[in-house]
């Protein structure tokens, strides 16, 4: 069995967040969704758990739930099949209510980050296939 990755994100408005991720083209696993959370299927091995602030906070009691709009704690990078796929995903995010940063073209890699309605940063990227096999050029090591 492959390792699965579950990214748990606190969200202020579960319905809004669910609609946002569905607008990106992802589906929801209803078996693992309820009034406290929704399971977004990104791939066969990657899932995003959208959790209400109260439910999210119950996993690690005694800690405040961070507001991703005022502090960056993580950025989630997702590989895409092409530069066009990167742009398509980010364009969908903006149309669904997110915001985008300027694209970064490093030659061997292209990325274009976006922020979801709760402030979580995603960084879809495409890497030139030869660089994915050999690593980045020397100046980026």
From TrEMBL:
Domain VOC per the UniProt entry, residue ranges: 3-127
Pfam families found in the cross-reference section: Ble-like_N
Gene3D superfamilies: 2,3-Dihydroxybiphenyl 1,2-Dioxygenase, domain 1
Highest taxon listed in the record's lineage: Bacteria
Coiled coil: none
InterPro entries attached to this UniProt entry: Glyas_Bleomycin-R_OHBP_Dase, Glyoxy/Ble-like_N, VOC_core
Signal sequence residues: none
Listed name of the protein: VOC family protein
Protein species of origin: Microcella humidisoli
Source taxonomy: Bacteria, Bacillati, Actinomycetota, Actinomycetes, Micrococcales
